[in-house]
Write a structure and sequence with these properties.
By secondary structure, this protein is α/β, with parallel strands linked by helices. The protein has a domain of 176 residues: 3-Layer(aba) Sandwich (Rossmann fold). Helices cover 42% and strands 21% of the residues. The strands form 2 sheets. It has a 7-stranded mixed sheet, with helices on both faces. α4 crosses α5 and α8 runs antiparallel to α9. The chain is globular, with a radius of gyration of 18 Å. It binds S-adenosylmethionine.
């Protein structure tokens, strides 16, 4: 994780009680390791970096079937407005001019499908996600959309040639990645010069009182909802905790700049509950 990782509300270097439902092998990875070893954050827990992706995959394998429903319930539908804002800022061409989008960590296709809906007939989108279960849920949802394809792959080592895409989007995906800098570097590599980068991610609430309310809601209600609706509070606790560990708006801006991008700007959404970062490969 980057140096500017945010502190958690409840710092915890020991086994996280919210993850008690995960399997024995997973718990083994969550135990405090040798302090000399580098660590990655998995929610509030610290794990071996090489173990994190497997843990994340286990979460998304569990939530894939209920993912879209839970997104609506957890955000009260707000994620739809935030994704619409991403599409508006991206402004894909409405003409037949060729336009290739890569939607990384695209999951069930919520971002890519919205972009294609707004774009012209020359546009196409590739969803690249590390989880076979999320991709399967996305394929079922997308049905026969000829402009959309799915590729299983890791954001840190994208299975695409250099300078292949006109735009790169990543929605609520990058905080799950073990090495954020590597993912940003890969985003830069696969974009054409003149290509656009847009990242939608949960961020740091910048409105007094809203931050307190949001903390209380997200730390308590979301895992409870996950338990009720998806029978899995532990996975949803991870999702909330991972939000707290993600760099704030300004720090993430620096990480994007360090990857080589230019004209990096961000917009807060709903007081900073989420933020959209925009950048260009020039
Ligand atoms: C919260 S979901 C977001 C899905 C979709 N972008 C959306 O906004 O609804 C996060 C996604 O990131 C994927 N993911 C996690 N780590 C990844 C990695 N290293 N590379 C690619 N995808 C990853 C997960 O499998 C999951 O589908």
């Amino acid at each position: 994780m980057p140096q500017c990782e945010r502190s958690s509300l409840r710092r915890n270097n020991s086994l996280n009680p919210g993850l008690a439902l995960l399997s024995a092998s997973v718990k083994e990875d969550l135990k405090p390791q040798d302090t000399a070893q580098p660590k990655a954050s998995f929610g509030f827990a610290r794990v071996r970096p090489e173990a994190k992706q497997g843990l994340v995959n286990e979460v998304f394998a569990k939530v894939a079937r209920r993912y879209d429903l839970m997104n609506d319930l957890m955000s009260g539908g707000l994620h739809r407005l935030w994704k619409d804002e991403l599409v508006t800022w991206l402004a894909p061409p409405k003409s037949a001019v060729p336009y290739a989008l890569l939607d990384v960590a695209g999951g069930t296709g919520d971002v890519a499908l919205r972009v294609l809906e707004a774009a012209g007939s020359g546009s196409s989108a590739v969803i690249c996600d590390v989880s076979a279960d999320m991709i399967e849920a996305g394929r079922v949802r997308a049905g026969e959309e000829p402009r959309l394809s799915f590729v299983q792959g890791n954001a840190e080592a994208l299975p695409f040639p250099d300078r292949r895409f006109d735009a790169y989007t990543i929605g609520f995906g990058i905080r799950n990645v073990t090495h954020i800098e590597a993912a940003l570097g890969e985003g830069f590599r696969v974009l054409k010069p003149g290509g656009r980068f847009l990242c939608l991610e949960f961020s740091a609430v910048e409105v007094p009182l809203l931050d307190t309310l949001y903390d209380a809601y997200s730390m308590n209600a979301i895992p409870a909802l996950g338990g009720l609706v998806a029978g899995d509070s532990a996975s949803y606790r991870y999702l909330v905790e991972s939000i707290r560990r993600f760099p704030d708006q300004k720090c993430f801006t620096h990480l994007i700049e360090n990857a080589g991008f230019e004209r990096v700007h961000y917009r807060n959404l709903t007081g900073g509950i989420a933020a959209l970062h925009s950048a260009w490969r020039l």
